[in-house]
Amino acid sequence: MSVRLQVNVDHVATLRQARGASYPDPIRVAELSELAGVDGITVHLREDRRHIQDEDVLRLRKVVRKLNLEMAATPAMLTFAQRARPNTVTLVPERREEKTTEGGLDVAGHRVVIAEICAELSKTAIAPYVFIDPDAIQVQGALDIGCAGVEFHTGDFANASGESQVREQLARLQSAARKLTDQSPALVVAAGHGLTLGNVELLVREVPQLGELNIGHAMIGDAIILGIQQAVCAFRRAIQNGQRGRRMPEDRS
């Protein structure tokens, strides 16, 4: 089975919100990503609404084939998810002062609350995932709460320097993934955070249990570079079209 690729379009909204404009539109980028062959779209609706907005999620649900909503494990976010009805919800930790999600959710320490949220999501046909660090305690916590999938936080792997550190982090991911699939073969095993063109091939090769990847920052960053030529050509065509349609000023001599 091929590994499914999901694209996180949060940072398209980050650019939009920086100017308070209506563009770039994360929904349009999501549609183009699907046309390019991605398997799903991910967005993180943060409690401070720093990038993705409620309306973005509602619009995306109408136009994309598969929508994964990342959110904090709170009653307010649960209520919104039940309204929006994404295909999957990934419960993540959230701190307002962080620039990006800095680690996995403490499922083991909050089993009861997280299990209740997962159960409520399942009642509305939303598959609940949890975003955790690849360690044995959190893996067991995820197995105990009855979620549909687990996404491993790959930040430590992505930030590792030198072969020994990389191998150490790969070993953590391998062990955690094996434990999950050995005890619950039906669970979806996903990974995300810090994945780039430089490290994703190694991760997929060395952790064969992975069924999904969520990639956001690097994908959008690469799109700015790899897509700039097409953007320049589009603007050049618009300028040329405008020039062709100009009304020349009258000669008043």
Can you give me a brief rundown of this structure?
The chain has 253 residues and is of the alpha/beta class. Helices cover 49% and strands 15% of the residues.
Word description of this protein:
With 253 residues, the chain is α/β, with parallel strands linked by helices. The chain contains 11 helices and 8 strands. It has helices spanning 10-19, 26-36, 54-63, 75-84, 111-123, 136-145, 155-159, 163-183, 200-206, 217-226, 228-244; strands at residues 4-8, 40-44, 67-71, 88-91, 127-132, 149-153, 188-192, 212-215. It has an 8-stranded parallel beta barrel, surrounded by 7 helices. The termini are far apart. The mean pLDDT is 91.
Report the principal-axis shape: globular
Largest sheet: 8 strands, parallel, barrel
Radius of gyration: 21 Å
Distance between the termini: 75 Å
Fraction of residues in helices?
Answer: 40-55%
The total beta strand count reads 8
Q: List unreliable stretches of 5+ residues.
A: none
Q: Which structural class fits the helix and strand makeup? A: alpha/beta
- Strand order across the biggest sheet? 1-2-3-4-5-6-7-8
**How do the SSEs run, as a string of H and E?**
EHHEHEHEHEHEHHEHEHH
Strand content: 15-25%
The number of helical elements comes to 11
Overall pLDDT confidence: 91
